[in-house]
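To whoever is covering the structure queue this week,

Two jobs came back overnight. Logging them here so there's a record in the thread.

Job A:
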Amino acid sequence: MSFSFRQLIERKRDGEVLRAEEIRWIIAEYTAGRLPDYQMAALLMAVFKEGLDGPELEVWTDAMLYSGEVLDLSHINAPKVDKHSTGGVGDKVSIPLAPMVAACGAAVPMMSGRGLGHTGGTVDKLESIPGFRTKLTPDEFVSVVEKTGLVLAGQSGSLAPADGAIYSLRDATGSVPSIPLIASSIMSKKLAVGLGALVLDVKVGRGAFMKDLDRARLLAETIVGIGKAQGTPVVAVLTDMNQPLGRMVGNATEIAESIEVLHGGGPPDLVEVVYRLGEEMLMLAGISSERADARRRLEQAVSSGAAFEKLQQVTVAQGGDPAVLLDPSLLPQAENEHIVRATKGGYVVRVDAFEIGTAALRLGAGRERKEDDIDPSVGIAVEAKTGDEVTAGQALARIFWNDGSRLADALPLTESAFEISEQRGSPLVYGEVR
């Protein structure tokens, strides 16, 4: 079966609905390398402008899911549950959360992404642990889950390969914030690893791809709908991303903060989001029937050391050096530090997540181009959060840097991210969609 790709682009551009066989042909041909990037980019922009209706989106997601291998984890005698975030600044939630949930008896087959624009990526953070391999074959992926009850891996070229190709093209052509493309990207990856349920963390605010609550809720509803069509329960929690989550923004710095959480510490906002998502995961997995019991189990996993032990196990299984978990000072460290101080006293009313994330990107903590290398040691420590009272001269942020020209680019953004005035705050969790 063959179609005119140009005609399909024109039809979608003009708001027409594509048939199921046309969509499957598009995904199969592009995955096989028989459709050029420039034409696929045109189609993605048409989808960005015109959207995909319910049946179109179901077929698009299903075609991406079956564009490669689909793992079978049915032989693992534990409920399979995963978590996904739509991306934020300082969002290291997966790193403490996955071991906590696995320590409570679930299997967590987690496939994570790299940084996208100003937002950080779990894979980049994990790779700041010396030796930690996130690029696993499907057989290795399954083997690590069998051994440890979880895996923290990047996207495999053989699992949902259509998404990997389309994801890079979206990033390069400005079509990232499309709700149907985001939803199909997330669900094709997640369904490919054989999970039984998913908790989605939809970030809302300045540092998120979804800037307003209505669009964030629509994305949540769209993904929950795809889950229902595929027979996979999904719960979406909408959380704030107007300011960075936790204190640390970077890669190695966020690993260190994740270890704090697994030892019972960590910033209150980060801890709250980790536990809230963990509660949902344990309830979806059927391990807990109510939130209070789920919370108790998660707290016990931390206080007993079982959750931290899970992180050690998966680090060893994926080739990482467990010594850095026991002594985070062994993680990559930047050579220099610059302190941004308050110019007046008052209350912090804004810590702009987008500007902080962009500043960390400029330091080298992220990629401005796909081929750029990441410096795992650089980053920003946010010392004052929204609602905090500060005095003139007090530290608002610490910048960890290696390159003076990069510091010069990052410093104005960090300084302008903070606003001090009268006290004001915003909620951390906006609601949920089931």
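Job B:
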Amino acid sequence: MFTKSQAFYEAIYDARGKDYAAEAAWLRAAIGVANPGAKRVLDVACGTGAHLRFLYKHFEVAGEDVDAAMIDIAKERLPGVPLRVGRMQDLAVNQPYDALMCLFGSIGYVADEAELRTTIARFAAAVGTGGLVIVEPWLHPDDWREGTLEASFVDQPRLKIARIGTNERYGATAVIRYEYLVGEPTGVSGFSETHRLELFSDEQYRSAFEAAGLKPRNERSDLFSRGLYIATKQ
């Protein structure tokens, strides 16, 4: 997964047009409509805490991510917010949340459909009755385009990045290989990363939600091109 890109993560996606402030505002409104009394929000696979930086003034928030370097960055930017290192597959909480988010296709990092189902069940267990589980899916199998080349470029005064990605597919597993070239005042460096994500169908996602006692619906938005599953705990 991530090896050295954590420090450049937000710069890359800012350059690609990702608007964390707008996404957080949309999520805040969606949570308010679906669960008006929501106070406590957990961001699973929170990364550097980019969404939480816009939500913590409105909710009691917490975050969890498997990547310790991501959590270290989030802690620097969100002092006082509970943030911990942990796998989404092992999620356990001491007190139920009113809403749980797992965004940016991070759910695709589970190993297979069986792990998808057990992970969604852990999400369901982490919210109270009437609580929300919000999941931004990774690509569906029919959306995958073999052999696609991806390029991202960061052009800041003190940071230049070129990231080029190639992809492969093995059954339901997508493999993306990134090559990075990074220029900083201290010099130019390069490194590689490989990401493996599972391609689940809409039916597989919905089945996992329903098996966990969640009633899902899919919300489409210009901000979330793959849509969001917003599921209510029954």
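Note for Job B: The first helix runs from residue 9 to 15.

Please reply-all if you pick these up so we don't duplicate work.
Q.
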